[in-house]
Amino acid sequence: MPSYSIALDRIAQCGLELRRNPETKELEIFTVFVFSFHPNFVTAGDRSFAVHCIFLQQQVTVATKFNFISDITTKGIIGATAQMPTIDLTIVPGRVPDPALEPAHTVVVGEPLMYVWHLKANTDIYGIRVKDCFAEAKDGRKMKIIDNGCSVDSLVVSHVQYSENHRKAFSDGMAFKFPDVEDVWLICSVTTCIRRFEHLIANDEENLCDSQRKCSQREKRSTKITETSAVSVYSIDDLVNHKLRVIDSPAHALPFRQENNSRVIEDGMMDDVKVCLEKRSFAGASAALISAYLATVCFAGGIGFSLYRSHHNKY
To answer: Where is the protein situated, by its record's location annotation (predicted)?
Structure first.
């Protein structure tokens, strides 16, 4: 049977959309396939199919066995189901790190944005740790913007900061886009960590929530991605993403009003118009204007002198 496989790090390039449902713990890959039977025209035989691939979260049962000298009488059984915390990424306009605000979907290049990673449910045990973030376009172009919680390019996004209880992480930045495309996917690998308590003793602090990272010594603007780092972001279980449509900022032009099918510049707008010239261009233009002025004066003087002589000869 014919088959075709697509790597997870190429789903955006192939037009597929990755969705995560925090309530049902389902991971969905969605796309639309269009079958066209003519290379140039749309015909009645064309068909399109919306495909939803849903992957259920795997449940693992953990058990252990104790060997004692004598058997222990079972007094009772306590059963419970532990709900794993889920992390979500919300990008909001402005500079307030509040995930309850309306998410940003369509923005303008240079518009201030706030990246907010937050836990979906309240918990007194777990916190958030932001690892890496990538910006990716539909054509496969990608750029790493956050490396282990630290900004790669401060012009795009700042270092990740955490709230005191580590339930929320945030970073501010400016809206940006790849040339010639408007859709940008922000994909981040995140994980949960255990909050630090005074009575908590751990030999390995890898799973404990970190304090604020020191990112000042990191090398900035290093956007080169190796093959390993480009794929590693997709091999993490906790993967969050947010899609933005980023449009170019409008060109700076003089405002006008339309009267009788003609464009008229608004009153008072010409007062602020300034033209800058280089010194050589300014000198050349000045010399040309002076030459034209002298030539005009000489020509007018010659005509006046000729008229005067002709009038004097008559009398």
So the answer is: Cell membrane
CA dist., res. 241 & res. 189, Å (int): 9
**Residue 250 identity (one-letter amino acid):** P
Q: For the chain, what are the domain ranges?
A: 1-58, 84-250
Q: What is the distance of C-alpha 274 from the center of its chain?
A: 36
Would you say residue 24 has pLDDT above 60?
A: yes
- Lay out the sheet containing 17-21: strands in order across: 17-21, 26-35, 47-56
pLDDT score of 251:
55
pTM of the predicted model, to two decimals? 0.54
| Percentage helix, strand, coil for the chain under 3-state DSSP, each rounded to 5 | 15, 30, 50
How many residues are listed for the chain in this entry? 315
| Residues facing residue 135 across a β-bridge | 143, 186
Does the structure show a pLDDT above 50 at 89?
yes
For the domain made up of 84-250, give the CATH fold.
Answer: Immunoglobulin-like (2.60.40)
What tokens does 91 get? 């990008």
Contact 111, 174 (CB under 8 A): yes
CA dihedral 83, 85, 90, 96 (to 10 degrees): 120
